[in-house]
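Revision sheet: structure tokens.
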Amino acid sequence: MPTFGAHMSIAGGYFHAVEAAHRYGFETVQLFTKSNNQWRAKPLADGDIGAFQDALARTGVSHPVAHNSYLINLASPDDELWNKSIEAMVVEVERAYLLGIHDVVAHPGAHVGSGEEAGMDRIAAGLDEVHRRTAGHEAVIIDLESTAGQGSCLGHKLEHLQGIIERVAAPERLGVCLDTCHLFAAGYPISTVERYAELIADLERTIGVGRVRVWHLNDSLKPCGSRVDRHAGLGRGLMGLEPFRLVLNDPRFAHLPMILETPKGTDGDEDLDSINLRILRQLSVPASAAKPAKRRVVKDHQE
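Predicted:
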């Protein structure tokens, strides 16, 4: 069975994210290593690192995943923003290394009108510089995330991820994170066995299935091909539950962390994270043995 987790807040300390994941019954967790909407962050203290690692050991939560700041844009044609993004990405890798986190999920970036090829060139050059400045931190892998393709964001085509990986000098330091909502919004239906098989074939043709290191499991409030990124709880959007069943029961991904980035809150007296985790566990068994889950749309969410 895959390792299930959710993105959790680091308010009050990194260890709080681990403890929150454990309370819900998750086996892994995703977190920011700093405020996601600020460039700067105070250096990590030994106490922060120790408390985080102690929480992992105490709870049994494993393979934590970091997500980089949304401010970073390695595809930017603007030199000032591009250099600032490189510096911020170096910090992301360094903080993950100190915390003992091996995967940093990163949005590839937006070319802002310069074009897809120029954007991929820019991202690859930026990643090369990040890798140069973080020599010795090879244990940390930057996982390029598939995107919905809003605006000029790259990553809504698997060929974008392939193009970036092929351009970098150290492709072994890159992985991929696939997001179900983003794939669906980008035009990959994955709603039937046949369509899912097409996705796997596309993966093999471009990046290779073995390059995938993390899944984000989110339903979509917007239709397939809309290129609009709006997350929903599982079964509360337009995707149906079959895409999740197919991913969860694919032995090629059975060892990977699978992270919820679904809306927080409650439905009646039950927490939405608990509801989504229960659905994941139901879907991780043969379809004939799983109980159907209700589909209801809740509040809008954007990653």
